[in-house]
């Protein structure tokens, strides 16, 4: 899997750390020949995207933009500002919180959702599986 990572946030993040784990998830899910974009941004930028594409006001933690392509899986956008606040709230590292958001966004690109309780349970189980895989 080709992973293109861009950091537009002032918060520093390890690109190789996330690239390695995304590729591991792709191999596990038998998706090795797809490309994925991962962009780290701040709260004002994700709030603009959230309003434009989701019609929701305010910042969110992660947005996923699936692409209808045989080569491109899609794009995941993570707000490092929100992830940092959540990491503090959950008493976990920023890296761990961002990895969870990447997993969550990755699953959305694959068609998983959490609109119903049943869907939420299915997606949560897959999130736990992938978080265990990427450690």
Could you please describe the fold and organization of this structure?
There is one protein chain. The protein has one domain: Collagenase (Catalytic Domain) (3-Layer(aba) Sandwich), CATH 3.40.390.30. It contains 5 helices and 4 strands, in the order E-H-E-H-E-E-H-H-H. It has helices spanning 15-28, 43-54, 80-90, 94-109, 117-134; strands spanning 2-7, 35-41, 62-66, 72-79.
Compute the number of strand runs.
4
Task: Assign the CATH superfamily.
Answer: Metalloproteases ("zincins"), catalytic domain
Mean pLDDT: 97
Instruction: Please indicate the percent range of residues in DSSP E strands (runs of 2 or more).
Output: 15-25%
Give, in spatial order, the strands making up the sheet with the most strands: 1-2-4-3
SSE string, helices as H and strands as E: EHEHEEHHH
Q: For the CA atoms, what is the radius of gyration? A: 14 Å
Topology diagram in text:
Elements (H helix, E strand, L loop, with lengths): L1 E6 L7 H14 L6 E7 L1 H12 L7 E5 L5 E8 H11 L3 H16 L7 H18 L1
Parallel strand pairs: 1-2, 2-4
Antiparallel strand pairs: 3-4
Keywords:
135 residues, alpha/beta, Collagenase (Catalytic Domain), 4-stranded mixed β-sheet, 53% helix, 19% strand
Short characterization:
The protein has five helices and four strands; from the N terminus they run βαβαββααα. With 135 residues, it is of the alpha/beta class. The protein is globular.
């Amino acid at each position: 899997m080709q992973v293109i990572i861009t950091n537009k946030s002032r918060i520093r993040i390890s690109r190789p750390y996330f690239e390695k784990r995304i590729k591991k998830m792709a191999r596990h899910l038998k998706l090795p020949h797809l490309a994925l974009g991962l962009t780290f941004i701040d709260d004002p930028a994700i709030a603009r995207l959230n309003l434009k594409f989701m019609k929701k006001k305010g910042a969110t933690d992660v947005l996923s933009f699936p692409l209808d392509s045989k080569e491109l899986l899609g794009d995941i956008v993570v707000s490092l500002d929100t992830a940092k606040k959540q990491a503090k709230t959950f008493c976990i590292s920023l890296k761990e919180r961002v990895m969870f958001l990447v997993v969550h966004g990755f699953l959305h690109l694959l068609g998983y959702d959490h609109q119903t309780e049943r869907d939420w349970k299915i997606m949560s189980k897959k999130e736990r599986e992938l978080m265990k895989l990427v450690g």
